[in-house]
Amino acid sequence: MLYSEIWHIIESDLIWDRVVKKDEIKYTGNVYDVSVNPNENFVAGFGGIFAHNSEENLRKKFEEAEKSAPSIIFIDEIDSIAPKREEVRGDVEKRGVSELLTLLDGLKTRGKIIVIGATNIPNAIDPALRRPGRLDREIEIGVPTKEGRKEILEIHTRGMPLTEDVNLEKISEITYGYVGADLNALCKEAAMHALRRVLPDIGKIKKDAALPQDIREKLKVTMDDFSHALKMVEPSAMREVMIEVPKVRWSDIGGLEYVKQSLKESIEWPLKNPDAFTRVGIRPPKGVLLYGPPGCGKTMLAKAVANESDANFIYIKASDLLSMWVGESEKHVRDVFRRAKQVAPSIIFFDEIDSMVPRRGSNADSHVTERVVSQLLSEISGIEEMNGIVVIAATNRPDMIDPALLRPGRFDRQILVPTPDQKSRLEILKINTKNMPISGVDIEDLAAQTDGYSGADLEALCREAAMNALRKNISTDKIIKRDFDKALKDVKPSVSDDMNKFYESIVARKKREQIEEDINYTG
Q: What DSSP assignment string belongs to 163-210?
């Protein structure tokens, strides 16, 4: 048959799902697997006359395992069977946890029975289960490394007819954050894309005819098929936190050459060439603090360095971390760093960090932020073990940040992002007007007139000039000097002289502190 021939050509274990009926108890050598399904265990409901079934189902499984010893009892999604008792309201769940604890304690007398639990949220499990004598060992199955991803891809594609241009090494490099199931889905999608490509040709062939050789040749998975699949299959590790690879490039940011170079040295070089730092015997910075007036491009700079470094970008704001519940804010901080490790190389960007980690003791109600400061210090100090992770923070008020975060080993580099000078303003105006139909507008003269304007102010100026042109004539295709002149009257610089002096004083103070440190060091 024609279609069975097609399946045979591109079939593999990991492309076409095979449904195999599995008995609940299956024999392998001398070991039985007694699987516990959490949905079946609590199928009786959460109360009423059937509430006792939950404990009874568990007891039956353990009795079954005892009769078939040596046995392995595998409990999938154990967090749904044994959640933290203080966080559940129903009596059924609490009794289920108590019954499981009793059964685990009784395993010593049964002998030759091992219990394995699996979960993707270990902190949701009742702590009593994680004590010695119950679930003694905890093994984390993390996100695979680049080498691991390549091996998984080789397994998933060994039954596929691949073209010569398919580079599994390259695919493994760009699939950070993908777990085994994601790579499985990636290969499936690539194969299906190859099949869809030839379906129109297949439709023209008679049902019982043999598959022509030219179509057989087309039924190969190409690198383009994998490129398509990469757009369709999202890695599991990137779903819980807002993670992206920004589209901002250095060329999209006008001026700020010193800041760009500092970020390249502090972040791009370590992420792209970690061996270079090892060769010269130095440690790259763990964190970078960008400070300066509002609207000067701190967030854009962080996104650009993430893009140029081929790193994932994790954007965090205060509302993502701070919680009124005790322990929740610290947990959020831990989760951010755990997720960053899973999708490394990654850049964690804390926007307006002064609202998350203010000086400890600065106000009476600072208990939550004090715990966040302590947790953040702990995570950044332990970042040496988390290769491929860099922390960037942005603030308008560096004087409000807890000083402990500004010491060496935390935010090693502190970079002022100033209001742009005339040369930088010219570059910013060129970027903002490159797609605008301007006529008779002297951009250099405009740059000279906009002293004190931030990057955001200049963007607003160009937008207002365009709106002025549309207000005169909705059908216009020109923006003239008069439109910009009017915009200059309406859009004023948002950064005051006092604000610029404030940041200059911070820079001067840091220089004095550095000189004093050098004097003390040299004696």
A: -TT--HHHHHHH-TT--HHHHHHHHHHHHHHHHHHHHHHHHTS-TTSP
| Domains: count for the chain | 4
DSSP 51-80: TTHHHHHHHHHHHHHHHT-SEEEEETTHHH
Paired sense of beta strands 312-316 and 287-291, if any: unpaired
Q: Do 250 and 380 fall into the same domain? A: yes
Residue 345: phi and psi, rounded to 5, are: -75, 135
Q: Which two tokens stand for residue 148?
A: 């691991």
Same domain, 385 and 318: yes
Structure-block tokens of residue 124:
């949701």
Give the separation between CA 262 and CA 499, rounded to whole angstroms. 23
Residue with tokens 């964190």: 287
Count Cα neighbours of 368 within 13 Å in the Cβ-side half-sphere. 15
**pTM, full prediction:** 0.65
Domain CATH number, residue 308: 3.40.50.300
pLDDT of residue 323: 66
Residue 17: pLDDT band with limits 50, 70, 90: very low
Same domain for 216 and 251, yes or no, is no
More confident residue, 243 or 249: 249
Token couple for 381: 């100090």
pLDDT at 361: 66
Q: Which residues pair with 114 in a beta bridge?
A: 72
CATH number of the domain encompassing residue 460: 1.10.8.60
Please check whether residues 200 and 258 belong to one and the same domain: no
- Cβ-in-10-Å burial (0-12, 13-18, 19+) of 309 comes to buried
Alpha helix segments (H runs only) across 382-493: 422-433, 443-449, 455-472, 481-490
Tell me the mean pLDDT in the region 162-172.
91
Pair 222, 166: CB distance under 8 Å: yes
Predicted local confidence at residue 339, as pLDDT: 81
Say how many residues make up the chain: 523
The residues facing 273 across adjacent strands are: none
338-392 confidence digits (pLDDT tens): 888 877 788 889 988 888 888 776 665 556 777 788 888 888 876 556 678 889 9
Average pLDDT for residues 194-202, to the nearest whole number? 79
